[in-house]
Amino acid sequence: ERLAYSTEQPLMPGYWVIVQRGSVIPFQKADGDDILENNEMFTLVVNPAITVPANGVFELTLNTDTNRAFDIKFGVPTEIRKYGVVKLRV
Questions:
Q1: pTM here?
Q2: Cα separation of 12 and 1, whole Å?
Q3: So what's the pLDDT on residue 83?
Q4: Distance between alpha carbon 37 and the CA centroid of its chain, in Å?
């Protein structure tokens, strides 16, 4: 499933959004654009249109402006509930 970026509220299924931008360097901030650059960190909310069950696995692919892809696999916790929010750390 390919998700589109959206800033509409509420975030509908099939979309994702950046909800927070920061820096890994103390007392610095991200520059405010939607491009993840060195020393920046983003918090994403991803709302897939398909359901991933408890104990299921899904993969998130982040593409760069140089067409390099980063694939990250996540397992859905057993205690997930419908419409639940799960914090996943990479």
A1: 0.74
A2: 14
A3: 57
A4: 15
The amino acid at residue 6 is: S
Tell me if the bond preceding 10 is cis, omega within 30° of 0.
yes
Question: One-letter amino acid identity for 17?
Answer: V
**Terminus-to-terminus CA distance in the chain, angstroms?**
21
Q: What are 33's strand-pairing partners?
A: none
Whether the CA torsion 48, 51, 54, 58 is positive or negative: it is negative
pLDDT tens string 50-88: 888 888 888 888 877 787 888 888 877 777 665 556 666
Domain ranges across the chain = 1-49, 51-90
Q: Are 41 and 25 in contact (CB under 8 A)?
A: no
List the alpha helices (DSSP H) in 1-90. Answer: none
